[in-house]
Design goal:
Number of strands: 10
CATH architecture: 4-Layer Sandwich
Number of helices: 3
Radius of gyration: 14 Å
CATH class: Alpha Beta
Shape: globular
Structural class: alpha/beta
Helix content: 10-25%
Strand order of the largest sheet: 3-2-1-9-10
Number of domains: 1
Oligomer: single chain
CATH topology: Purple Acid Phosphatase, chain A, domain 2
Order of helices and strands: EHEHEEEHEEEEE
């Protein structure tokens, strides 16, 4: 299964629409801060779209987090702001382990990362609209899941 992971689009959706055409995912995971554009993000995709609540998603009924089963993996999706991700990944990884998750997918920092250390895989796609990593290129992650194997590729526009 090909999964497109994005975050922090902040109503600036042009890059999201472009990558949907090129990636052609079977599932989209949006890690929050869609800022009211949930309908547009979901309608544009030819697959299911799962979106969680970000710290800028005011007046939204999005879920705070989600638990998904992808292949043999338990995946926990959250925005991350409630777990101090701007200061590091340790706390969110501990919470993911406590929830029985193999993979935690989160946003908020606007910096892409795939951290496979210490049992739980932590995945952050960065931001398609307001990147903060060195070079400031919009980023996303393509996750390929097949049975007991999961591969992650950080992609840039």
């Amino acid at each position: 299964m090909k999964v497109l992971i994005v975050s922090d689009t902040h109503r600036k959706n042009e890059n999201y629409f472009k990558i949907l055409e090129s990636v052609k995912p079977q599932l989209v995971i949006h890690c929050g801060d869609a800022e009211g554009s949930e309908y547009a993000l979901s309608k544009a995709a030819d697959c299911p779209v799962q979106i969680v609540l970000g710290n800028n998603d005011f007046f939204s009924y999005l879920p705070k987090d989600l638990e998904l089963k992808l292949g043999s993996f338990r995946v926990w999706v959250t925005h991350g702001h409630n777990y101090g991700v701007s200061m590091g990944r340790e706390r969110i990884k501990r919470e993911a382990a406590a929830r029985g998750a193999d993979i935690v997918v989160y946003g908020h920092t606007h910096k892409p990362v795939v951290d496979k250390k210490d049992g739980v895989i932590a995945v952050n796609p960065g931001s398609l609209s307001y990147p903060r990593q060195e070079g400031r290129r919009p980023s996303y992650i393509v996750m390929e899941v097949e049975g007991e194997k999961a591969d992650f590729a950080i992609e840039y526009l």
